[in-house]
Specification:
Elements lengths: L5 H8 L5 H13 L5 H11 L3 H14 L14 H9 L4 H11 L6 H13 L7 H21 L3 H4 L1 H5 L16 E3 L14 E3 L1 H15 L3 E5 L6 H8 L8 E6 L6 H11 L10 H11 L4 E6 L6 H12 L5 E6 L3 H5 L3 H4 L4 E4 L5 H11 L8 H12 L3 H17 L7 H11 L4
Parallel strand pairs: 3-6, 3-7, 4-5, 5-6
Antiparallel strand pairs: 1-2
Pfam families: AAA_22 (PF13401)
GO molecular function, one term: ATP hydrolysis activity
Protein name: ORC1/DEAH AAA+ ATPase domain-containing protein
Length: 428
């Protein structure tokens, strides 16, 4: 036997048991009717807490079924807060005072310091104060121009604009079966032998974009990854009416207003080098947007509020004729950060998953490999792997092609497909 108190030294210095293990064992004793206060004290000792804490653990497990500690919400700063912080030259105390003046729930100053330090260490860049002030002044100027344009020709002629004939982007065929389109489409990668398929989602996107073009409006195309949002917009804009142009604007990573201005300038393929002042660049962009044009912004969910305000200023400018199409996963949530632009969106078009009823028709029209597969097998593939996601079907098609080309005796069966499922879907 050891010296008196040796067990206490061991439990206090070396042995530590996690909360789930202790609670699970105590619940077992409780279910058997053998739980005592001594057990709770022992559990508290090996967990490094007091007995009252262990009793609270047990109560949470009984009433909520929770043996872990309740997760705390991660404190995040909005883009507006980062802009205020940049204007204050990185002074967190100034940001704290601004948040208190704005009202609502305000974290402590120490918490703000921790969040700013955490995000800066993770790679967040705090813009220079002079740059932020200059961009803010430019945005105020653009907003003033937009406000002056509210009573201009665009609004006065709204009745005439609404009476125009919709651009025919929707196909004449309205049957339920998809229509394949051979040939490559810029910006859309397809497996060898595949062809584009005009699904019901493509027709809905084409209709929404066509209506927006008729009134020089704005449309937001959103949906989960891999559903074919970009492909649907590209198919809809593949043949625009005479007199219209289509410009795709790539969104830079961590975009700023200066970066978006440069991206729009480059996308319009304007002659000459990028101007050395923002005023000259804006004048050149506004001049190019004076002709009927669809401005498509893909990956719009990356855009912070200042960049969205910049796009709104281009659209509201009295000299531009823009139909604005914002595309991306979560683009509808990004727009919610700028209500004045969200209120101008004429159509919110979601691209849903392929339904079980249309999977067979779509995939057999997409690639000849699937035309020999029975419809029940296609339904099984969709339920087991693809889950109505068109990008997954395309990846699975490419893997199946490679498997059939590299193995002479390969045949399409469920064993082969199960192996390919593991390549297409990441392990959970």
């Amino acid at each position: 036997m050891g010296e008196p108190g040796a067990w206490g030294e061991v439990t206090a210095g070396l042995l530590r048991v996690s909360r789930p293990v202790v609670v699970a064992r105590l619940l077992e004793l409780d279910a058997a009717g053998a739980l005592t206060t001594a057990h709770v004290r022992a559990g508290a000792q090996v967990s490094g807490v007091n007995a009252r804490t262990v009793w609270r653990w047990l109560e949470a497990a009984r009433t909520e079924g929770r043996m872990e500690r309740r997760p705390r919400a991660r404190l995040e700063l909005s883009d507006q807060a980062w802009e205020v912080l940049a204007q204050a030259g990185g002074n967190v105390a100034a940001l704290h005072r601004h948040m208190k003046e704005a009202g609502g729930e305000v974290p402590s100053l120490a918490s703000l310091h921790r969040v700013v330090r955490r995000d800066l260490q993770a790679g967040r860049v705090l813009p220079d104060r002079a740059v932020v002030r200059r961009e803010r002044d430019e945005q105020q100027t653009w907003q003033a121009l937009a406000d002056l344009a509210l009573a201009g020709p665009r609004e006065a002629g709204a009745a005439k604009v609404a009476a125009r004939r919709l651009p025919r982007l929707v196909p004449e065929a309205t049957s339920g079966l998809p229509v394949g389109e051979s040939g490559a489409l810029a910006g859309v990668a397809l497996p060898a032998g595949a062809q584009l398929v005009r699904t019901s989602s493509v027709r809905s996107v084409a209709e929404a974009v066509g209506q927006a073009m008729a009134v020089q409006g704005a449309v937001c195309v959103f949906g989960d990854p891999g559903r074919g949002k970009t492909a649907a917009v590209r198919m809809a804009l593949g043949e625009v009416p005479p007199g219209w142009k289509v410009t795709w604007v790539p969104v830079p990573v961590r975009p700023s207003v200066a970066g978006m201005r440069h991206a729009v300038f480059d996308a319009l393929e304007l002659a000459g080098r990028f101007p050395h002042t923002s005023a000259l660049a804006d004048a050149a962009v506004a001049g190019a947007l004076g002709e009927a044009r669809v401005l498509v912004v893909d990956e719009a969910q990356r855009l912070p509020v200042p960049c969205l305000e910049y796009l709104q200023s281009l659209w509201d400018h009295p000299g531009t004729r823009i139909t604005l199409v914002l595309v991306g996963v979560g683009s509808e949530r990004a727009l919610s950060r700028l209500p004045q632009l969200a209120s101008r969106i004429g159509a919110w078009q979601e691209v849903p998953r392929l339904t079980g009823a249309e999977v067979a028709a779509v995939v057999t029209g997409f690639h000849p490999l699937w035309r020999t597969a029975p419809s029940p097998d296609l339904t099984w593939i969709d339920r087991s792997c693809a889950h109505g996601t068109f990008r997954t079907w395309a990846a699975l098609t490419a893997h199946l092609q490679n498997a059939l080309l590299t193995a002479a005796d390969a045949s399409i069966d469920r064993a082969l497909l199960r192996r390919l499922f593991q390549r297409v879907a990441p392990p959970l």
